Amino acid sequence: GIAIGRISLVCSNSFDSIILSALFGLTITAIYSNYYFVFSSISGFMGILVTSMSASVGNSLVTESIEKNETDHRKFDLYYEIIVGFCVICLFSLYQSFMRVWVGEDLMLSNVSMILFCAYFYIHHLAQIRSVYSEAAGLWWYFKYLSIAEMMGNILLNIFLGKLMGVNGILIATIITAFLCSFIGCTIITYKRLFKKSPRTYFLNNALYFAIAICGCLLINLVGNMIYVDNWASLFIKAIICAFLGMLYLIGI
After folding, report:
1. Which of 72, 83, 112, 115 has an alpha carbon within 20 to 30 A of 89's alpha carbon?
2. Sign (positive/negative) of CA torsion 175, 177, 180, 185?
3. Contact partners, residue 131, CB within 8 Å, separation at least 6
4. Which residue from 176, 163, 157, 180 is spatially nearest to 119, judged by alpha carbons?
5. CA-to-CA distance for 79 and 209, rounded, in angstroms?
6. 103: closest CA among 34, 37, 32?
7. Local structure of 114: helix, strand or coil
8. According to DSSP H, which parts of 127-199 are helical?
């Protein structure tokens, strides 16, 4: 089960660039890779938070009741989604400005692609806390068919939507498969096998977190758009303002 899950994860992340290169050439792939580099760099820092929890969660699953672990799971998920929401708000406001200064306007994707990258980032981190609990509980074997479905679905949708919509199609394909398999499917199995209850409350909470993140992106971006960025100094000023406003927004909510 672990092997299937790891292979699926690697294939899902790798085939995006392979199919993009096959369909549209190396120039578009290089531009996509620049955006993905920012995406993966932030995800790397987020991964440190998740990895550091694993041992404590494993111990809690052995020593605490199912009810206590489910309550902790929802609590940790709230804290993590606040951090993810903050990152998405900053990405939404600063992604294009950073790329303009870093690589220039000739090597930038459209604003629609940028929005899809932000959505991809959010979906990618949506079930990370759930993943910590399911891994600590050893539920890999129950995920095997979902992992295979995600891998195969991602490849097929990448080809179909990639030909139809270009880079945006590749991103949409990855978002769809990750949402349906990793978030919806694996969450249902985790709640059924580990917490012995319906994931309805968990899904409703995450819908609320998503709505809050979207509102934050739109509001903070309104302020960010007032600052035109054409050098590193102006980018730094915009980053400080957007990060500060994003933090105030999430604390206020």
Report:
1. 72
2. negative
3. 50, 182, 186
4. 176
5. 11
6. 34
7. helix
8. 128-136, 144-165, 167-177, 186-190
Q: How far is CA 236 from CA 86, 107, 160, 176, 243, in A?
A: 17, 21, 40, 34, 10
Residue 22: Cβ within 10 Å count: 13
State the alpha helices, DSSP H only, in the chain: 2-24, 26-63, 66-102, 111-126, 128-136, 144-165, 167-177, 186-190, 200-224, 232-252
State both tokens at 181. Answer: 């398999």
> Of 7-21, 82-96, 177-191, 225-239, which gets the smallest average pLDDT?
7-21
* The dihedral formed by the CA atoms of 240, 120, 129 and 142, expressed in degrees to the nearest 10: -170
The mean per-residue pLDDT over the stretch 47-74 comes to 88
| Mean pLDDT of the 222-237 span | 88
* Rounded Cα gap, residues 230 and 235, in angstroms: 7
Question: Which tokens is 123 given?
Answer: 């979906």
| pLDDT digit string, tens, across residues 168-189 | 999 999 999 989 988 999 999 9
pLDDT, tens digit, 9 for 90 and up, residues 122-151: 998 988 899 889 888 888 888 888 888 888
Per-residue buried b or exposed e for 157-192, using 16+ beta carbons within 10 Å of the residue's own CB: bbbebbeeebbbbbbbbbbbbbbebbbbbbbebbbe
pTM score: 0.91
137 φ/ψ angles, rounded to the nearest 5 degrees: -85, -5
Q: Locate 218 and state its tokens.
A: 């739109």
How many CB atoms are closer than 10 A to CB 122?
A: 23
